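Page 37, top half.
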Amino acid sequence: MVRSGERDTERRGFERVTLKVKDAERGDWAVLRVSGEMDLVTSPVVRQRVHDAVADGRRSLVLDLAEVRFCDSSGVGVLIAARRLMRSCQGRLRLILPPQGGAADGSHVNRVLGALGVRRLFEIYPDLATATHEGLDGTGDPLPAQSA
């Protein structure tokens, strides 16, 4: 599964807005690397790519949003819908976001999710290695042992 998607849109007369979505795999995880702006015009591309991954039989999905520089309510809606879809098929969804107050690139989504009070709905990781490692939590610390 190797796909690449890009959508250019004209907005406010002169400004060109681009959303790029690139597919990758890491072990059992399908990875969608999203960059650009997630808004009313561009976020349906992300929604479709999540649906495509599920249709391909993927049940473990990472959305790498570290390169997303803007996200409005439409983008947040897509993230919530992706969470709902993955839960409905007993799948897993993890987000990669820079820490709050971290790098300028990508921290916008983290702040938006926090401001809306929905950040707690997602498993958030700082990088791909941590997100796809089964024994670590979102901070990189080992998960507590599960009792039988």
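Page 37, bottom half:
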Amino acid sequence: MKKNLTISAACLINNQGEILLVRKRGTTKFMQPGGKPEAGETALQTIIREIREELGLSFTADELRYDGEWIGPAANEADTMIRASLYSAAFDGELAPLAELEELLWIDPQVALERDDLAPLLRDRVLPLAIERSKK
């Protein structure tokens, strides 16, 4: 029986047009910062908290753009589907992985699509959206 998870995820883009990918400790797939809501949290409250916990960044609601929802397979949990609320923001600066993050990577979205270690949400929704926006 498949499990269902609700998450919020962020697409952070720097001044060079690169997207931030993160890898959680003990996993092999790169994804966006984000995670599951705590009791009573909205999707927006979740992503603001997760970005603060994982990256030490403080975003306001006005600084995050809502990019819609995506439903698909989870990257690191077998027989699990996720419903992801997606947000994007600009950020340019130095970061270090915090909380459960082990690795951070800034990469051109088109180059990232060539990797074989991407979460489905990143590969199927976030990177194509980032590439489309970079052409405008």
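Margin note: The beta strands are 3-13, 19-24, 30-31, 34-35, 65-73, 80-90, 101-107.
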